[in-house]
Specification:
44% helix, 186 residues, disordered N terminus, 4-stranded antiparallel β-sheet, elongated, alpha+beta
Length: 186
């Protein structure tokens, strides 16, 4: 087990598991113990994992809806304004024909809904993040092949370096490692 260097900031503790069932059980036990700021990493989707983590994030659909409503309002309003400010009467056609405004309104709805979904996802995931302290842990490379990891972050209200390490050790992982804050490479 790797100990943090004296004077270093601790980002969290990483526990490595060899089976997905053990990871799911560890997450459930950590949640039961009161840990909330944690993340699990797996080389493939594990069905029970998102439920065990308490992942119920549903803000992206609301951001998409808000972006779509804003886009529709903006597109329709822009057309109303331009027809009013620069009115051209042609052949007795009405100045405000809503039917002709629907194409641009629809396109603006889709555009703003997609943009708000994409940028909302990027902001909520704190992206782009070019370097993550987990990348400094050599064993974390196995998260792409056959290992499963649980990280309890140091910003959790229940986190205490020694007690959390003991707790993770009692979950019977392959290993427990400290993750230190590191400077981003330039």
């Amino acid at each position: 087990m790797r100990e943090p260097r004296p004077g270093s900031d601790l980002f969290g503790l990483l526990a490595e598991f060899d089976k997905p069932e053990r990871l799911v059980e560890a997450v459930k036990r950590a949640r039961k113990a009161g840990f909330l700021a944690m993340e699990a990493y797996s080389p493939y989707p594990v069905e029970e994992l998102s439920g065990a983590l308490g992942f119920e994030e549903n803000i992206i659909p609301w951001l998409t809806l808000a972006g779509g409503i804003f886009g529709a309002t903006f597109g329709y309003g822009l057309q109303l304004y331009t027809n009013h400010a620069y009115s051209i009467e042609i052949g007795g056609r009405p100045l405000y024909a809503w039917q002709s405004f629907m194409l641009i309104t629809f396109e603006m709805t889709v555009l703003f809904a997609v943009l708000s979904a994409i940028f909302g996802m990027l902001i909520l995931n704190r992206l782009p993040r070019l370097h993550h302290p987990l990348f400094d842990i050599e064993a974390f490379d196995f998260a792409n092949s056959d290992r499963f990891f649980l990280v309890i972050f140091s910003n959790d209200r229940r986190f205490h370096p020694k007690r959390t390490r003991v707790f993770l050790t009692h979950l019977d992982p392959v290993r427990v490692e400290a993750i230190e804050h590191t400077e981003q490479p330039e």
